Amino acid sequence: MTAPETPLAAPLADRVVVVSGVGPGLGRSLALRCAAAGADVVLAARNEERLAEVAADVEGLGRRALAVPADIRDETACTRLADAALDAFGRVDGLVNNAFATPPLKDLTEVDLDAVRAGFETNVLAALRLTRLLAPALAERDGSVVMINSAVLRHSRRTYGAYKMAKSALLSMAQSLATELGPRGVRVNTVAPGYIWAPNLKWYFDRLGKKRGVPAQTIYDEAAATTDLGRLPEPDEIADTVMFLLSPLARAVTGQCLDVNCGEWHH
Q: Distance from CA of residue 132 to its chain's centroid?
């Protein structure tokens, strides 16, 4: 079998990628790195102003962008998102399920079960809903789905139980979808970041530093010391791994979970 030509400079050339959960950190990087790799991008999130900003950034890279305000916990909103993507571009080649919600960080013996259910709704069922809606279109294009997971899969620290439950379910779901959709030519993979050096983490480290009376850099250095590379990954580095899994460069990769954490955890 002869491998298809895959331009390394633009591995997503002329493809259409849907990205949910577009925020100022990883979501923005996912959109821009896909655009830089040659893709047109459909952007979904609840914040219309943020969507417009990221859409303008995508267009600044010479690619088309479609911003669709949507709460992916809602069936009607998801259907509208899928329809808008197909109406605008006529196809979908890739889907990145990036939207997430962190349940209350409490021990499982104490956490509110309604909050646990809400976490499953965003972290698991919303991703399944959107994948199911786009599966027929992805099958027409030998498409690819990437679930954004978390390094919470790799530890069992106190108070993270509800979050680990949801993310473990997301991983199991991705593996099962890989088996179900594989015969239709659709690949399904997972990326599990740990710390991501983005605005939310920078704010948190600054807060911890003030609480301890030390510079935020001290908090960063302590966290970075737990990784093999001695630093924390940035959003573009996570996004580049996702871009690889979306592309034909990973055409034989499905059902896998790739950790991107600068060596904090080994798997």
A: 17
**pLDDT, tens digit, for every residue of 62-115?**
999 999 999 999 999 999 999 999 999 999 999 999 998 888 999 999 999 999
Q: What is the pLDDT of residues 103-114, one digit of tens each?
A: 899 999 999 999
Burial of 65 (0-12, 13-18, 19+ CB in 10 A): buried
Tell me, yes or no, whether 210 and 122 share the same domain: no
- d(CA 172, CA 149) in angstroms, rounded, equals 11
Domain contains 1: no
Domain encompassing residue 38: 16-196+234-256
Alpha carbon distance 206, 90 (integer Å): 45
Residues 208 and 190 both lie in one domain: no
The catalytic residues are: 163
